[in-house]
Write a structure and sequence with these properties.
GO terms for molecular function: ATP binding; double-stranded RNA binding; L-threonylcarbamoyladenylate synthase; tRNA binding. Its EC number is 2.7.7.87. Required for the formation of a threonylcarbamoyl group on adenosine at position 37 (t(6)A37) in tRNAs that read codons beginning with adenine. Keywords: ATP-binding, Cytoplasm, Nucleotide-binding, Nucleotidyltransferase, Transferase, tRNA processing. It catalyses: L-threonine + hydrogencarbonate + ATP = L-threonylcarbamoyladenylate + diphosphate + H2O. This protein is an alpha/beta fold and 336 residues long. The protein folds into two domains: 189 residues, DHBP synthase, CATH 3.90.870.10; 89 residues, Rossmann fold. The protein has ten helices and 14 strands. The chain has a ten-stranded mixed β-sheet with strand order 1-8-2-3-7-4-6-5-9-10, with helices on both faces. The chain has a four-stranded parallel β-sheet with strand order 11-14-12-13. Strand 9 and strand 10 form a beta hairpin. Helix 9 packs parallel to helix 10. The structure holds threonylcarbamoyladenylate (TXA) and magnesium ion. The site of magnesium ion (MG) has 3 residues, from loops.
Length: 336
């Protein structure tokens, strides 16, 4: 592999990206959720390069990205059954945006993209650079988050360069991601809609659009052992190397000499001085801001070689559901 270039999205950079993708190379692109590691979804060898670069298990399928809702049919079979079609229409109104739908796979999508499943995850991202790139591509783009498997998803071009240097030729820098957590994944079929991953679109919003009780939507999102509908939703995921502890309820956690703290809102001085390093994610505790800045703060603290990181928790409602999902997984490695 050649040296990795980070470039701002000029017209010529985008042209170069389309050429590289057409040749079966990998390109990192910004989306509104996290950065993605992109390949031509029609090209089996290019897709296999994604799995190798990320060290991702082959049984974990990829999301296919297209430029607009009317191109979803290039990757997925649109529902024809009346009520599933209604649900599709209600949710596809959220596109372009941070929503992924799992639908029956189109024959054109190679099995390696879907890990041999007969469903495919599809999404229309809203980041203007992703849109400009996808509009120029005569093929859909398969893209997981642009991090090594099991590490924290990247929300800046620098995060991608640090994790994937030498594995990609081009990183398109679209600035820090606006959402900061990955897309919400919903499976749609005749048995109804199921939330497979909470994300930047709240589960409450999905339930409201589908006019179903939220309990019916979320029944499969917990860390169930055994059969799991979305293989990426394993218990230990998004893990920093430094032990992470959630400051939940009245659970006592010792502050060791070299402890970092991620606070969702400003701490009082007495508490702040206990910590070796403090990251305050929002002045007002706004959970959208917390989500936007969380992964970058985790990465910064993880680079310091601290003994541990303490992090705030929030109610798992709205954006709080995606935040708590990621934090529980990030902390799972260090739980008994
Ligand atoms: O926001 C996002 O979704 C980002 C940006 C780059 O689009 N992408 C992303 O991809 O988070 P990745 O690969 O890190 O996570 C995709 C998740 C995995 O948990 C995978 O198991 C699940 O989607 N998935 C993909 N295809 C699936 C399918 N056919 N059925 C069930 N789950 C699927
Ligand atoms: Mg990922």
């Amino acid at each position: 592999m050649t040296e990795t270039l980070i470039q701002l999205p000029s017209e010529s950079t985008l042209d170069r990206a389309v050429t590289l993708l057409g040749e079966g190379r990998l390109v990192v692109l910004p989306t509104e959720t996290v950065y993605g590691l992109a390949a031509n979804a029609w090209n089996r060898e290019a897709v296999m390069r994604i799995f190798a670069a990320k060290q991702r298990p082959a049984n974990n399928p990829l999301i296919v990205h297209v430029a607009s809702v009317d191109r979803i049919g290039e990757a997925a079979a649109l529902p024809v059954d009346g009520s599933t079609r209604q649900q599709f229409d209600a949710l596809s109104d959220l596109w372009p945006g941070p929503l992924t739908l799992v639908l029956p796979r189109s024959e054109k999508v190679p099995p390696c993209v879907t890990a041999g499943r007969d469903t495919v995850a599809v999404r229309v991202p809203s980041h203007p650079v992703a849109t400009r790139l996808l509009e120029r591509c005569p093929f859909p783009i398969a893209a997981p988050s642009a991090n090594r498997s099991n590490y924290i998803s990247p929300t800046t071009a620098e995060h991608c360069a640090r994790g994937l240097a030498g594995e990609v030729e081009l990183i398109i820098d679209g600035g820090p991601c606006d959402c900061g957590v990955e897309s919400t994944i919903v499976a749609l079929d005749r048995s109804g809609a199921r939330l497979l991953r909470p994300g930047a679109v709240s589960a409450e919003e999905v339930a409201r659009r589908l006019d179903v009780p939220i309990e019916r939507l979320i029944r499969q999102t917990q860390f169930e052992p055994g059969e799991i509908e979305s293989p990426g939703m394993l218990r230990e995921h998004y893990s920093p190397s430094t032990p992470l502890f959630l400051l939940a309820g009245n659970q006592a956690v010792d502050v060791l000499p070299r402890t970092g703290r991620i606070a969702f809102s400003p701490l009082d001085t007495a508490e702040a001085t206990q910590y070796d390093r403090l990251e305050t994610l929002s002045d007002s505790g706004d959970l959208n801001e917390v989500a936007r800045r969380l992964f970058a703060a985790l990465r910064r603290l993880d680079l310091l070689g601290l003994d541990q990181i303490h992090v705030d928790v929030c109610e798992p409602i709205g954006m709080g559901r995606a935040i708590m999902d990621r934090l529980c997984r990030a902390a799972a490695k260090h739980q008994p």
